[in-house]
Amino acid sequence: MDAQSSNGPPATDAASYLDLGITLALNNWPALTLAVQSNWGGPKSDDKRDWLCGAISEMLTERPETDAEDIEDVLIQVMNDEFDVVVDDESAGNVADEIMEMKAQAERGNFAVIQELWETWQKKSQQKSASAAMFKQVETRDEDQETDESDDDVGDVDMDDAPALVQAPREKAEPEIDEDGFTMVKKKR
After folding, report:
1. Can you tell me which residues the record assigns to a coiled coil (predicted)?
2. What residue numbers bound the domain in which 88 lies?
3. Are 104 and 15 in contact (CB under 8 A)?
4. Which of 41, 43, 128, 137 is 20–30 Å from 79 (CA)?
């Protein structure tokens, strides 16, 4: 199968597959996804996620002794520093373990897990695109119906015939002054 085809990931060797696996693992991490979607890292939150993918890949390449604990520490630190998120649900450890497992498999030439993640990601993306297109189609149809209804003038009332809602202003009561010259305070009803 051609690795550059639309059905496969754009990866040709173990390093490329590992980079793809890291990217997919981080893009599937709910804590990071929420932080990016909510712009907790600022308007360029998605760029920070991309940077993190590259930093993890670089760390694994330059320091082969890197283990899951090292990756977990980096993930927690970046979430805290860049997104102001404290990750305490052990999900960073799970993502780190997933990345280390993909690294081990990629080193053995086994890309099946990464390939499967890629295919799942593509299906989700297609479903999101289809849902967005369906939403736009329904939204356009609703706008068309609103336009049609306003053109018919069915049930419209001429506003010139509307009753006046303005009431005549009340006369202000004169303040009562007692024998000592003080103004009496009355409760409002």
Report:
1. none
2. 14-134
3. no
4. 128
Query: In 3D, which of 129, 132, 49, 41 has the Cα closest to residue 82?
Result: 41
Q: Is residue 150 in some structural domain?
A: no
Which tens digit of pLDDT belongs to each residue from 136-180? 766 666 665 555 554 555 555 555 555 555 555 566 667 788 888
Q: Is residue 158 part of a domain?
A: no
Which amino acid appears at position 125 of this protein?
Answer: S
Give the whole-angstrom CA distance, residue 151 versus residue 56: 59
Q: How many domains does the chain have?
A: 1
> Is residue 52 assigned to a domain?
yes
- pTM to 2 decimals? 0.61
Helical segments of 108-153, H only: 112-152
Largest CA distance in the chain: 106
Contacts of 98 (CB under 8 A, 6+ apart): 25
126 falls within a domain = yes
